[in-house]
C-alpha cells in the first residue's frame, strides 16, 4: 500500500524504524473500534474482529501509522494535552483516506462545498471521544483551536492523497525530494 510505504519510509528517516512483529498487534476489540495506536508501547493495534475488507485494513493501518509518525517526529503528549491528540486525529482523518468521497457516500453523508473539512473535523472529534474521557464540548474546542494548522500539516505526504494514485505520487516525490538539493 503506497500510504503505508510512505509513512514507514518517513518514520525510518526520522529515526523510528517500525518492525512488523514488534509494532503491530492483531487483537479482538470491544465495540466498533477498528484500531488504535498505543503510545506507551509504540504499537499499532488492529482489531481483527472489526475489519472485514482489505481496503478498510489499509485505511486503519494508514490512520494509525500517521499517529505513529506524529509520535516519532513531534513528541506528542497523548495523555495530558488534548490539543496534541486533536492535531494527530485531524491529520489522520485528513491524510489516511478516511474522508474520501467514496467513503463518505458509503456512510450516506453527502455534500460538496467544504465537505472534506467537515468530515475531518467530525471524525477527529469522534476519535477523541472514543479514546479520552472528555466532554464533547472539550473535544470540539480542542479540534477547533488547532484545526487550521493541523489540517494544513501534510507531512510526510506533501498533499492530501485522495486516491492510491495520489499516494503513489506522494511516495515518489518523498523518495526524490532530496535529489534537487543534492544537485546544487
UniProtKB/TrEMBL annotation:
The keyword Repeat does not apply. One of its GO terms (biological process) is mitochondrial protein processing. This is Mitochondrial inner membrane protease ATP23. GO terms for cellular component: mitochondrion. Its EC number is 3.4.24.-. InterPro entries: Peptidase_M76_ATP23. Keywords: Hydrolase, Metal-binding, Metalloprotease, Protease.
Amino acid at each position: 500500500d503506497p500510504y503505508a510505504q510512505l509513512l514507514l519510509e518517513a518514520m525510518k528517516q526520522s529515526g523510528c524504524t517500525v518492525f512488523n512483529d514488534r509494532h503491530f498487534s492483531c487483537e479482538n476489540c470491544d465495540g466498533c473500534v477498528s484500531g488504535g495506536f498505543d503510545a506507551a508501547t509504540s504499537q499499532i493495534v488492529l482489531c481483527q474482529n472489526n475489519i472485514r475488507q482489505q481496503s478498510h485494513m489499509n485505511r486503519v493501518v494508514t490512520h494509525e501509522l500517521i499517529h505513529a509518525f506524529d509520535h516519532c517526529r513531534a513528541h506528542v503528549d497523548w495523555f495530558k494535552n488534548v490539543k496534541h491528540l486533536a492535531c494527530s486525529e485531524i491529520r489522520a482523518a485528513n491524510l489516511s483516506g478516511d474522508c474520501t468521497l467514496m467513503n463518505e457516500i458509503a456512510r450516506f453523508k453527502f455534500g460538496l462545498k467544504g465537505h472534506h473539512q467537515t468530515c475531518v473535523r467530525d471524525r477527529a472529534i469522534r476519535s477523541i471521544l472514543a479514546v479520552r474521557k472528555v466532554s464533547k464540548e472539550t473535544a470540539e474546542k480542542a479540534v477547533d483551536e488547532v484545526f487550521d494548522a493541523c489540517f494544513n500539516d501534510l507531512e510526510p505526504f506533501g498533499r492530501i492523497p485522495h486516491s492510491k494514485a495520489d499516494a503513489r505520487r506522494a511516495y515518489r516525490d518523498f523518495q526524490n525530494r532530496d535529489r534537487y538539493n543534492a544537485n546544487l
